[in-house]
Structures are given as C-alpha cells and as structure tokens.
Amino acid sequence: MKTRAAVLYEMEAGRPYSASRPLAIEDVTLDGPATDEALVEIAAAGLCHSDLSVINGSRPRVMPMVLGHEASGIVRELGPGVQGLQVGDHVVCSYVPMCGVCAMCRSGTPSLCEPGGRANASGTLLTGARRFRNAEGRPLNHHLGVSGFSR
Ligand SMILES: [Zn+2]
Ligand SMILES: [Zn+2]
Q1: Do 68 and 51 meet the contact criterion of CB atoms below 8 Å apart?
Q2: CA of 58 to the centre of ligand 1 (A)
Q3: Ligand minimally distant from the alpha carbon of residue 48
Q4: Using CB atoms within 10 A as the burial measure, which of 9, 10, 100, 115 is most buried?
Q5: What pLDDT does residue 147 have?
Q6: Which distant-in-sequence residues (6+ apart) come within 8 Å of 117 by Cβ?
Q7: CA nearest 6: which of 53, 57, 47?
Q8: DSSP letter at 56?
Q9: Measured between alpha carbons, how far is 150 from 5 in angstroms, rounded to an integer?
Q10: Which residues contact residue 118 at a Cβ distance below 8 angstroms, ignoring those fewer than 6 apart?
Q11: Residue 2 CA, ligand 2 centroid: distance in Å
Q12: 113 C-alpha vs ligand 1 centroid, how far in Å?
C-alpha cells in the first residue's frame, strides 16, 4: 500500500532543524503484514527524544530510517499467525518490540527483550524484515521495530 512517512536519510544535520529540515515527509510503500504481524492505521504518532537521538547522531542507527515509533492506531489487517488481536482493535505501540518468549520477556522485563534489541540495532522488525520502501524502491529501516500507515 501507499502511505507517507517521516524519513531520516542522514544523521547530524546542522542546527537549527527548522532550517536544515532533517526529516523528509515522503510517499512510501508499506508491505502487508507477514505471519506474526499486524497492519495498524496510525491515528497519532509522537516524535520523541529517542527519535531526536537518531537525528542528532548521539544514538546512531542504520540509515535511511522511518522515525516516529510512539503511536496509537487501529488494527486493519492481521497476519495468519497473530493471536489475541482482532481487526478494528485500538492499539498503542511499545517503544521496544518484544518477542514474548526470551528470558527477559518471561521475567517481566520486556523492555530488555533480546531479539527486540537486535531488531532495534539492525533497523528491522522482529522477524528481520523491512516493510517500507521509498519511491526509488530503496528499503527503509524501522526505528524500534515499529511500522504502520496513515491516511
Ligand atoms: Zn520513544
Ligand atoms: Zn523477548
């Protein structure tokens, strides 16, 4: 599907950001959900300090990257393996993906999820996949394992 995203192509833009405008608001392609994924229509998304840390380069990430991971929205489509969610559910996105089965997740500290941390570092979803592409077909990395779309 087609949607729009805030894409960061280069870290450490000059300040003020109102002049350098480090984020490109672009039309992008978002693939549908795989087996264990949900497609969420984003109602609202914040741009938080961890996004800013990528923009200013203090927390480097792989470029290019779609920013804005603290979101709420409505489930519009589910992969065949998803349990516990239904189309139409209202959801919020966690700031870290969690697998639900690693030692950290099972001990009640999903914010330290090990596969989630690896996905964050590599700019992918938990499955290792990337679902966004820009107009030139270039894959775009995910910030904190989150993707969604807006109308
Ligand atoms: Zn955040
Ligand atoms: Zn986990």
Answers
A1: yes
A2: 14
A3: 1
A4: 115
A5: 62
A6: 96
A7: 47
A8: T
A9: 8
A10: none
A11: 31
A12: 16
CA of 67, nearest ligand number:
1
Tell me, in angstroms, the distance from the centre of ligand 1 to residue 61's CA. Answer: 14
* Structural domains of the chain, ranges and CATH numbers in brackets: 2-142 (3.90.180.10)
Q: How far is the CA of 48 from the centre of ligand 1 (A)?
A: 5
Ligand number nearest CA of 108 is 2
The confidence score (pLDDT) of residue 146 equals 63
* Ligand 1 centroid – CA 88 distance (Å): 24
From the CA of 111, the nearest ligand is 2
137 burial type by CB count under 10 A (0-12 exposed, 13-18 middle, 19+ buried): exposed
The pLDDT of residue 70: 85
Q: Is 144 exposed, middle or buried (0-12, 13-18, 19+ CB in 10 A)?
A: buried
Rounded Cα distance, 70 and 42, in Å? 10
What average pLDDT values come out for the chain (151 residues) when binned by 10 residues? Answer: 95 97 96 91 89 95 92 94 95 85 95 92 91 97 73 60
